[in-house]
């Protein structure tokens, strides 16, 4: 293990195993370093306010979360909205709606909530969750899904900030890509960044590990990381973008975009974090538009 990795492991271990986790220090360190793999689940749960930062109250909070999960699940099972063959993501969605938007139960169409379902599947995969695991693990998986989905929905309400700063930063990042920059400006693409990119947390990046490295910066407090992620996605797609001459075609291409190649996903994530650190990771939220 390299010296830097060993030091990172020690810092995360010391922070997470203390009787009281210092949330601000944890956020600051996550902004500087990637979370060590073995500590990712616990770190995420603490940052998302699912696990108590106080060791003395952790068991109480875990039990309270389980009780909430069981109450919602039991209600929907009794009402026969949840069946034996209902997928775990669909169960999570029904419980989320009962907890926050009871008027929308039962669900007639899940199209509006495709982002929730994809986030649920992603979180379940992240926690290696399935129906046979302990109730407390499934409950935490549901809470994490709801927290992340709500964060992404809030992010869509600030899409004007993202679009503005993508356009601004692109002038610097694409300084040696004048043809691409002119093409994107000509078709007003910076003000047309798809809302669905934000709504599901940029799951167009199909490599789980790469996306986790981006999401952890976000849950540590930085919306601004998505500005740089957008820039590097556009740069990755420059060949295809330059081959399209209709604004409608370009926007539709971006809406439908999925990046499956693992090496490409890793490169985009690494480059995004590097640019974010270089140009202002201290700017955690989107700066105000002048």
TrEMBL record:
<dbReference type="GO" id="GO:0031410">
    <property type="term" value="C:cytoplasmic vesicle"/>
</dbReference>
<dbReference type="GO" id="GO:0005096">
    <property type="term" value="F:GTPase activator activity"/>
</dbReference>
<dbReference type="InterPro" id="IPR039842">
    <property type="entry name" value="TBC1D7"/>
</dbReference>
<keyword id="KW-0963">Cytoplasm</keyword>
<dbReference type="GO" id="GO:0012505">
    <property type="term" value="C:endomembrane system"/>
</dbReference>
<protein>
    <recommendedName>
        <fullName>TBC1 domain family member 7</fullName>
    </recommendedName>
</protein>
<keyword id="KW-0472">Membrane</keyword>
<dbReference type="InterPro" id="IPR043039">
    <property type="entry name" value="TBC1D7_dom2"/>
</dbReference>
<keyword id="KW-0968">Cytoplasmic vesicle</keyword>
<dbReference type="GO" id="GO:0032007">
    <property type="term" value="P:negative regulation of TOR signaling"/>
</dbReference>
<keyword id="KW-0343">GTPase activation</keyword>
């Amino acid at each position: 293990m390299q010296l830097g990795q060993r030091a990172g492991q020690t810092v995360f271990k010391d922070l997470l195993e203390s009787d009281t986790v210092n949330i601000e220090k944890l956020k600051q360190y996550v902004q500087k370093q990637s979370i060590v793999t073995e500590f990712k689940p616990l770190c995420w749960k603490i940052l998302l306010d699912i696990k108590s930062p106080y060791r003395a109250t952790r068991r109480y909070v875990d039990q309270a979360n389980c009780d909430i999960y069981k109450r919602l699940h039991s209600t929907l099972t009794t009402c026969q909205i949840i069946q034996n063959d209902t997928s775990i993501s669909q169960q999570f969605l029904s419980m989320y709606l009962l907890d926050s938007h009871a008027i929308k139960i039962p669900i007639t169409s899940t199209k509006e909530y495709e982002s929730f379902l994809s986030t649920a599947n992603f979180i379940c995969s992240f926690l290696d969750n399935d129906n046979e695991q302990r109730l407390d693990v499934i409950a935490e998986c549901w809470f994490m899904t709801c927290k992340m989905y709500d964060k992404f929905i809030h992010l869509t309400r600030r899409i004007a900030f993202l679009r503005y700063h993508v356009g601004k930063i692109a002038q610097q990042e694409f300084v040696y890509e004048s043809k691409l920059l002119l093409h994107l400006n000509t078709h007003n693409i910076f003000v047309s960044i798809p809302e669905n990119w934000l709504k599901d947390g940029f799951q167009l990046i199909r490599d789980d590990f790469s996306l986790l490295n981006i999401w952890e910066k976000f849950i540590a407090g930085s919306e601004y990381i998505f500005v740089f992620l957008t820039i590097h996605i556009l740069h990755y797609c420059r060949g295809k973008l330059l081959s399209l001459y209709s604004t409608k075609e370009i926007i539709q291409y971006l809406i439908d975009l999925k990046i499956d190649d693992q090496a490409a996903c890793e490169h985009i994530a690494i480059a995004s974090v590097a640019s974010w650190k270089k140009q202002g990771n201290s700017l955690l939220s989107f700066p105000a538009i002048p």
